[in-house]
Amino acid sequence: MTVHFVPWNTSNNLLQETEHLYEAAGTFNCIQKGDLVAIKLHVGELGNPYYVQPFFVHEIVRKVKEAGGKPFLTDSNTYYHAQRNNAYDHAITALTNGFNMAPFIVADGLKSENYRKVKTKGILGEIEVSGAIAEADAMIVISHNKGHELSGFGGAIKNLGMGCTPSAGKLRQHRTVGLEIDAAKCTGCGTCKETCEMHLPEIIEGKARNTSPLCMRCPMCIEACPMEAIKFVNKENLSRALASAAYGVLSTFKEGKVSYVSFAKDIARYCDCLPNPGEIMMKDIGIFASNSPVSIDAAFLSMADYKILNDASHVDCMLQVKEAKGLGIQGELKPQITTIR
What is the pLDDT of residue 80? Predict the structure, then answer.
C-alpha cells in the first residue's frame, strides 16, 4: 500500500505541492456529492504554536467542496480541564488559532455528552465514539506527528483513537494504564494532591493513595512527587488502547470513506494538547497522504529517527501501529513511499 509524500522543503511552494500530493494519493476520492465530511483535526491547545497551519486546512476544505462534499471542522472535547474541555471554549480556541474556514462542530457535544458506544477489538472491547464523527458520511483525518508522554508519538492512529472519542472514551483508554504509589518512599507531603487538577490523591494515615476511578493517568503527580514514589504500570497499554479505539471509530464508516493527511513538522516532545509542548526533537520531514492510518504512521516512523521519541517516553512508537495492523485495520508496516516531485 503506497503512501505519498512531499518533503518539507521551503524552497518550494508547499501549498502548491500538496495539490499534487492529494491528486496522487486520491485523498478526496472518499467523498461523494452531498456527503457530510468531518475534517478531523487538532486545533491546538491555547498557547501551543505547533498545530497544523490553518492555510493547509483551508485548502483541504476547498478541495472537499470541489468534490461535492459539505465540510465541517471537528474535534472532541478534552477530559482534562483546559481550554477545550467544553464546546464553547473549544470553539473559541479554534477561532483564536485561525480555524474559521468552515463550521467548527465539536464532535461530542457541549459537555462531551454526545456519543455512540460501539463494539471493538483488542484491549477495550467497546468504545464511545463522538456523535458528529459517528454520523459523518466521510472523514479527512489531518494529523500532526509529534511525541507523546504515554504512547511515544501521536499520528493518525492516535487522532482516531483519542481524538474521535468523548471524555468517557478518553478515560477508558487512559485507564488501561496502571498507577502505583510506593508507600515506603511516600512521605505524605501532599504534593501529588496539590498538583492534580482534580485533587484525586488522598493522604490517608500519612501516605498518598489514589484509588479514584476518575484518574486519567496523566503524568502530573509522577513528575511532581519529590520522593519519586509514583510510577506507571503497563504504560504500553495506552498504545494498545489507541489501536482498539481507532478500530471502533472506523467501524462507524463504510469502507473507503476515510482519508489521511499527516504533517511531520515541528515534531515536539509532547502533544498538541499542552500549551508548553517542549523542545523540537528532530528536523522537519514533510507531508504524507494515504488511505490507511497504519501505513501513514508507519511511513512517518520509517523516515524519522523515532528512537529519540522512544527514549523520551520509554514506549515503543511502533507498538500502536503493529497493534492496529493486528486488529485488522488495513495498511502495511513497511509501506511503499512515493515522493511527489
Answer: 85
